[in-house]
């Protein structure tokens, strides 16, 4: 969540940032925060004054008794008792104000960096790079035209290829669980496992420490990374135990550092994790959810960094280069988008999406989002580091990205490598699959 220091010291910038993110009643929300904060600080001052008077008067009681001034001592005791009751009331007011403040701050999104473009929808995102054509950084999604070609007539979409080569059974998944829970079979399962190992090995080569976290988290973890309360309806909830199935490994891995003070010399911390991810995706329907395009359960490798503010933008750049390197090695047509303010997530300060092109579907498929959250998550998590010079604790910056989400990568590999002979496996994956062709 946004820090009170930022809201108090840079109020206008915060309001402008929220407006760029198309947050409704931005000024009203920030004004409410300032009013509650003022009331909280005034109550704290009254409480401090009251406690100080208690301390002084309590110290006088024994002296008065020794001097034989019993009546005056008894009156002082009554005054102290009254002050204690007053202090109790002030503490309750403080707790109420703090609860109101926390509730309100949790409902206010992060503000975007200055370089984030204006815009309200995905159509306003900027294409900043592609391996299909040169980009000047000003192209928006709405005017993007691309026609990569395959050496095959009438290419099939991946769900037809999966059926043709017996790779994925979507109907069996419906039987066992429901729509959005596919069953991978034979070479389809081996391709899935090959991608997981490939992505983890590439992350390890880039200096990431592998984590195997739980795929179920408590509500505190969900609040820590901002999934709660913003995305509560999109998460599977185990009501009896009040646990949530994770939508991404970002949640458990980042929460490792909740309520932790790190040494500056240990930053940046670089973790990666493979997990199954679960998303209800309420309201999803139509052609865009066919096959692997949008699932309720899927495999994903996540990279997470905890860094100091002065280096987090460099970390973000390195993460973008890492994800781009994966797509290059998989020989996929891709583009990189800088998301506009209105299309950013609730918690991010800046986000780049990676998309791969599907010739068979004639559309781009998002396969990764790489975000810098500044200190927004860290403030919720109380994730701090000790400055080596000042010895003071400061909030960290948190970053994460998919490296990569498997379903649409599998879809893109199948669709973009289909031939009359079969489906060619990218060279980088052959040591992991153990086969060169699906036929």
Feature tags:
439 residues; alpha+beta; nine-stranded mixed beta sheet
Can you put this structure into words, describing what you see?
There is one protein chain. With 439 residues, the chain is of the alpha+beta class. Helix content is 41%, strand content 20%. It has helices spanning 4-9, 11-20, 26-66, 70-106, 158-164, 170-176, 187-205, 219-225, 250-255, 312-329, 376-381, 406-416, 430-433; strands at residues 126-130, 139-140, 168-169, 183-184, 209-211, 216-218, 237-238, 243-245, 261-263, 269-278, 297-307, 334-338, 350-358, 363-372, 384-386, 393-395, 397-405, 423-424, 437-438. The protein has a nine-stranded mixed β-sheet. A hairpin with an 8-residue loop joins strand 1 (126-130) and strand 2. It starts with a helix and ends with a strand.
The major β-sheet equals: 9 strands, mixed
Query: Helical percent range?
Result: 40-55%
Strand order of the largest sheet: 2-1-12-13-14-17-11-10-5
Structural class by SSE content: alpha+beta
Low-confidence stretches: none
Beta-strand residue fraction: 15-25%
How many H/I helices? 13
**What distance separates the N and C termini?**
51 Å
**Overall pLDDT, averaged?**
93
User: Got a strand count?
Assistant: 19
Radius of gyration of CA atoms, rounded to a whole number? 27 Å
Can you tell me the overall shape? elongated
């Amino acid at each position: 969540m946004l820090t009170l220091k930022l809201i108090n010291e840079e109020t206008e910038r915060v309001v402008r940032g929220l407006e760029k993110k198309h947050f409704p009643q931005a000024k009203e929300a920030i004004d409410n925060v300032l009013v509650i904060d003022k009331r909280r600080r005034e109550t704290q001052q009254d409480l401090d004054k009251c406690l100080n008077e208690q301390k002084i008067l309590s110290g006088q009681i024994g002296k008065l008794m020794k001097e034989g001034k019993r009546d005056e001592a008894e009156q002082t005791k009554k005054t102290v008792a009254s002050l204690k009751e007053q202090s109790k009331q002030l503490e309750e007011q403080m707790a109420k104000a703090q609860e109101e403040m926390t509730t309100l701050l949790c409902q206010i999104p992060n503000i975007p960096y200055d370089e984030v473009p204006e815009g309200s929808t995905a159509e306003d995102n900027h294409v900043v790079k592609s391996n299909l054509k040169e980009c000047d950084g000003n192209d928006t999604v709405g005017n993007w035209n691309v026609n990569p070609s395959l050496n095959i007539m009438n290419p099939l979409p991946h769900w037809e290829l999966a059926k043709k080569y017996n790779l994925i059974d979507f109907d069996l998944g419906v039987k066992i669980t429901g729509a959005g829970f596919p069953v991978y079979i034979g070479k389809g399962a081996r391709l899935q496992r090959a991608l997981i190992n490939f992505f983890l090995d590439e992350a390890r080569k880039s200096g990431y420490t592998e984590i195997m976290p739980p795929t179920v988290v408590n509500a505190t973890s969900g609040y820590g990374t901002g999934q709660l309360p913003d995305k509560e309806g999109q998460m599977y909830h185990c009501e009896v135990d009040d646990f949530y199935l994770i939508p991404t490994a970002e949640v458990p891995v980042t929460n490792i550092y909740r309520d932790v003070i790190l040494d500056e010399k240990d930053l940046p911390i670089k973790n990666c994790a493979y997990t199954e991810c679960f998303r209800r995706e309420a309201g999803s329907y139509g052609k865009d959810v066919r096959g692997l395009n949008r699932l309720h359960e899927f495999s994903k490798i996540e990279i997470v960094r905890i860094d100091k503010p002065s280096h987090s933008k460099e970390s973000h750049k390195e993460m973008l280069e890492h994800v781009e390197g994966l797509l290059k090695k998989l020989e996929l047509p891709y583009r990189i988008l800088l998301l506009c303010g209105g299309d950013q997530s609730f918690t991010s300060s800046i986000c780049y999406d990676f998309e791969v092109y599907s010739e068979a579907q004639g559309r781009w498929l998002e396969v990764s989002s790489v975000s810098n959250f500044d200190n927004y998550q860290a403030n919720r998590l109380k994730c701090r580091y000790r400055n080596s010079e000042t010895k003071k604790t400061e909030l960290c910056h948190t970053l994460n990205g998919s490296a990569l989400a498997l379903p649409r990568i599998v879809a893109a590999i199948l669709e973009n490598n289909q031939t009359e002979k079969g489906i060619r496996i990218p060279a980088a994956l052959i040591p992991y699959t153990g086969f060169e062709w699906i036929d």
